[in-house]
Design a protein that fits this description.
Blueprint lengths: L1 H6 L4 H9 L7 H16 L4 E11 L4 E3 L2 E4 L4 E4 L6 E5 L9 E7 L16 E6 L3 E6 L5 E6 L8 E8 L3 E6 L6 H5 L6 E9 L4 E9 H4 L3 E7 L2 E6 L3 E6 H8 L9 E4 L2 E4 L19 E6 L5 E4 L4 E4 L9 E6 L5 E8 L9 E4 L7 E4 L3 E10 L2 E14 L10 E3 L5 E3 L13 E8 L4 E10 L2 E10 L5 E7 L9 E6 L2 E8 L3 E11 L7
């Protein structure tokens, strides 16, 4: 019955709006949105608690991806979705030559026909120290595909990243550095990095290219690819952007398919097979057209918002912690576009575009979180200004920091210094994240109490910043070591590093409080 009603609406915007509001009950997304809305309401109820159901420890780093906990260099996989986490698979300990350097979770795209039944299930793309790219089943660890990357050239591939999430993957080498003896002999290394580009599901080879000093300059320190843009960073803080898709099209010498026999530069082999690996079939012979460049302290550069803006820090150390928000169109600084919290802290504040695609900006300091928005200046449609959408403030009501105190005997004592904004004895924000499916902004705040640090995870309304739920974490939080907190629907997971490179993982699950169970 929904179809005839839909036929009566001819405006595309109205159709999309009605669908988002759930007018068409046969739309599969309607039920999913309703279920997530119910989950959010249940989770934010006062009677709903998060219970620590499982804790484990490891001598190696612990990773988390979409309900799966990986340990022992990805040899052990534990599902966190069950009532109590359980092992999905446990592989025998691998040799050092098979050590995994990096990994990406690969999920099946919607609405596409894929060549193999295994492609419809989640898999893990891993990169080994010996330059093998493997696609593993996320449920069993079985090797589904394997590609050898490095041929006769000395390439040490170490990093995996997405150009387009779940579509185009980049495999990046470590920076090429000549041995000291070769440098002393006057031998020069012109190739700095190698980038191998793959389409995923089905896994296919697009090409491999060099980042060469002769093309991009001597002071290149790093490169990255994101959303079709090649980002080149320089030692003096310069960041340059190039059209990556145009580079692939312009400088591709010959396309190759995985498994294809080839005769390339005197080499005969099979693409992606040992010992030949992949051919370097994209040769940049001239500097590509420059899209954009900016100078920023420590190469910090971000693009986002609507209309497009970018965030930089002026390229001088005295400006650390000062952020400029400028128009990408004409480099004009937005009105109120200089953001400076004037923090006096050991750890700097940080800023980034909100991951909810709203175009807003999140600025996080030790005791204050600002959510900012771009809006048109009144009577000046071509100029944008930065306005405050809402703020979240740390709970420091009991904090007294008097510069002058009087003792019981009446002696006046003056402090020679004031406490830092991120003083461990005061509540300080450590993590800010966004849960896209529940549309919640999560924050982790920590307070040092004696020898122990106590942390709590708070959920805020993403639209207005209202506090909806607070979850105390039972384990102590040592601020001198690294921590990761994941909030995934009804699950909270805390991974922490401890002294002597020991790692711990704490899993909390949502439970409804009852009269019998006060947990």
């Amino acid at each position: 019955r929904a179809a005839p009603r839909a036929c009566g609406v001819h405006n595309v915007c109205r159709l999309l709006t009605r669908r988002a509001h759930g007018f068409y009950a046969r739309d599969a997304g309607v039920a999913h949105r309703k279920n997530l809305g119910l989950l959010r309401k249940i989770m934010c109820q006062e009677s709903t608690k998060f219970k620590n159901v499982w804790t484990t420890h490891s001598a190696s780093p612990i990773a988390y991806e979409r309900g799966r906990i990986y340990m022992d260099n990805y040899q052990c996989c534990i599902t966190s979705i069950a009532q109590e986490p359980r092992i999905l698979y446990q592989k025998s300990k691998c040799a050092k030559s098979e050590k995994i350097e990096d990994a990406l979770l690969l999920e099946c795209p919607l609405g596409e026909m894929l060549p193999s039944p295994s492609d419809y299930k989640a898999s893990l793309i891993v990169l080994t120290v010996q330059n093998w790219l493997l696609r593993l089943s996320a449920d069993s660890g079985e090797v589904l595909e394997k590609v050898y990357l490095a041929g006769s050239c000395c390439k040490f591939f170490r990093y995996l990243s997405w150009d387009t999430p779940q579509e185009v993957m980049i495999v990046k080498s470590a920076q090429n550095k000549l041995p000291a003896a070769a440098r002393q002999a006057g031998i020069q290394q012109t190739v700095l990095f190698y980038l191998a580009v793959f389409q995923v599901l089905p896994l296919s080879f697009i090409g491999m290219l060099e980042i060469n000093k002769k093309i991009f300059g001597n002071s290149v320190t790093d490169v990255a690819v994101s959303n079709g843009i090649l980002i080149v960073m320089y030692s003096m803080g310069l960041v340059r952007l190039y059209n990556f898709k145009a580079i692939l099209e312009q400088f591709m010498e010959q396309p190759f398919d995985l498994g294809q026999e080839f005769n390339w530069n005197g080499q005969v082999g099979v693409v992606g097979k040992y010992p030949f690996g992949l051919p370097c079939n994209i040769k940049i012979t001239d500097t590509p057209p420059l899209l954009f460049e900016a100078s920023s302290l420590e190469n910090a550069f971000q693009i986002g918002g609507y209309p497009w803006h970018y965030i930089i820090t002026p390229n001088k150390k005295k400006h650390k912690g000062v952020f400029h928000i400028c128009s990408l169109k004409d480099n004009a600084l937005a009105k109120n576009g200089i953001q400076d919290m004037k923090c006096c802290s050991l750890e700097p504040d940080w800023i980034y575009f909100h991951p909810d695609m709203s175009g807003r900006i999140i600025h996080v300091g030790p005791n204050l979180i600002k959510v900012l928005k771009l809006k048109e200046v009144k009577n000046h449609a071509d100029q944008m200004e930065i306005a405050e959408d809402f703020t979240i403030v740390a709970n420091r009501e009991n904090c007294v920091n008097n510069a002058v105190t009087v003792t019981a005997s009446g002696r006046v004592v003056k402090k020679r210094f004031t406490s830092l904004d991120d003083d461990p004895e005061q509540e300080t924000f450590k993590i800010v994240d966004y849960e896209d499916e529940l549309d919640l902004l999560s924050t982790v705040a920590v307070t040092q109490i004696g020898a122990d640090g106590r942390a709590h995870l708070d959920f805020h309304c993403n639209e207005h910043g209202i506090l909806l739920k607070s979850i105390p974490l039972k384990e102590s939080w040592d601020v001198t070591y690294s921590h990761e907190v994941y909030f995934d629907k009804d699950l909270v997971l805390h991974i922490e590093q401890k002294p002597n490179r020991r790692f711990s993982c704490h899993v909390y699950q949502m439970v409804c409080d009852t009269a019998r169970d006060n947990d």
